[in-house]
């Protein structure tokens, strides 16, 4: 039996290295790897891209688009880990738990775009609640997220782990122009009518994300409370092996949110935190930006496309 051939284009970047480490010991597929001297050779890359069964693109956006243009073999299937195609109508969004049937769509797709790390948490929280009508589509959504510095790629890792690491900022808020490239992706796949406000930050820890979305109950659908929001999320993700919806009791016992709590896993943990007296709710998502937020999502999509899940 011929094993499926998988080529990772860009396997020396943060996400590419993680995916390579996940796949290199597997016996149910074969990895196609180019020698160091050939990785930037357009001819050899084109040959590899057209010789494999599935290619995983771990490239900057422009390079990912160029790689897709190099594929002329109609049998080659693609998982793109960049943000180049996340809102493209011809690409399948690679968030299997996003809605019923999405895993089946991914399984048969020829072009799959991996979700962004921040959008994984935001869409994971918002889409079920918007679809159920609990959050109005016009609600002024505000999202804050803090990621480990690995989310900034090799340059950020070098800043925090290189010779000048002692001078690296312990915490930095960025995207101050409120035009982060993940915003259109969040708006489209969450089902928001209007553009959300998204404020991201990096902390002085390598990996992990905590993302929060505050809500005022008086602006939600009549009668909506924390219990209704929680029940909706729990129903939506019932049986999903990689999404944990903590009980209201577990959430109410929390005194802090640790962005590193799920590091080393491919899981997404969701909480609904409430202050009934003031009518406020905080939705939160915790996950590994290198797990469910990147390489773990790519591996999950690969297994769906290979019929392994």
TrEMBL record:
It holds the Pfam family Semialdhyde_dh. Keywords: Amino-acid biosynthesis, Arginine biosynthesis, Cytoplasm, NADP, Oxidoreductase. SMART domains: Semialdhyde_dh (SM00859). Residues 5-106 form the Semialdehyde dehydrogenase NAD-binding domain. Its EC number is 1.2.1.38. The active site is at 117. One of its GO terms (biological process) is L-arginine biosynthetic process. Gene3D superfamilies: Dihydrodipicolinate Reductase, domain 2 (3.30.360.10), NAD(P)-binding Rossmann-like Domain (3.40.50.720). One of its GO terms (cellular component) is cytoplasm. The keyword Ribonucleoprotein does not apply. Pathway: Amino-acid biosynthesis; L-arginine biosynthesis; N(2)-acetyl-L-ornithine from L-glutamate: step 3/4. It catalyses: N-acetyl-L-glutamate 5-semialdehyde + phosphate + NADP(+) = N-acetyl-L-glutamyl 5-phosphate + NADPH + H(+). Belongs to the NAGSA dehydrogenase family. Type 2 subfamily. This is N-acetyl-gamma-glutamyl-phosphate reductase. It comes from Pandoraea thiooxydans.
């Amino acid at each position: 039996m011929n094993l499926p051939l998988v080529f990772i284009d860009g396997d020396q970047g943060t996400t590419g290295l993680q995916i390579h480490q996940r796949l290199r010991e597997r016996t149910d597929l074969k990895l196609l790897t180019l020698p160091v001297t050939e990785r930037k050779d357009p001819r050899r890359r084109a040959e590899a891209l057209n010789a494999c069964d599935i290619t995983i693109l771990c490239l900057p956006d422009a390079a990912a688009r160029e790689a897709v243009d190099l594929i002329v073999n109609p049998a080659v299937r693609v998982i793109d880990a960049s943000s180049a195609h996340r809102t493209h109508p011809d690409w399948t969004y690679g968030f299997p738990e996003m809605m019923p049937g999405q895993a089946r769509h991914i399984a048969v797709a020829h072009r799959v775009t991996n979700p962004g790390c921040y959008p994984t948490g935001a869409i994971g929280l918002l889409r079920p609640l918007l679809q159920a009508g609990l959050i109005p589509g016009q609600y002024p959504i505000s999202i804050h997220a803090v990621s480990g510095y690995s989310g900034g790629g090799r340059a950020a890792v070098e800043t925090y782990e290189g010779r000048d690491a002692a001078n690296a900022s312990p915490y930095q808020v960025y995207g101050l122009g409120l035009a982060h490239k993940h915003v259109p992706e969040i708006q489209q796949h969450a089902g928001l009518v209007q553009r959300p406000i998204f404020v991201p930050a990096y902390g002085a820890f390598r990996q992990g994300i905590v993302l929060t979305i505050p809500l005022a109950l008086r602006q939600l659908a009549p009668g909506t409370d924390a219990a209704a929001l929680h029940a909706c999320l729990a129903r939506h993700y019932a049986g999903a092996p990689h999404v944990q919806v903590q009980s209201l009791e577990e959430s109410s016992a929390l005194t802090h949110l640790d962005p590193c709590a799920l590091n080393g896993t491919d899981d997404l943990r969701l909480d609904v935190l409430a202050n009934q007296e003031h009518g406020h709710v905080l939705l939160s998502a915790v996950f590994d930006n290198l797990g469910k937020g990147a390489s773990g999502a790519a591996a999950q999509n690969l297994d769906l496309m290979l019929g392994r899940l």
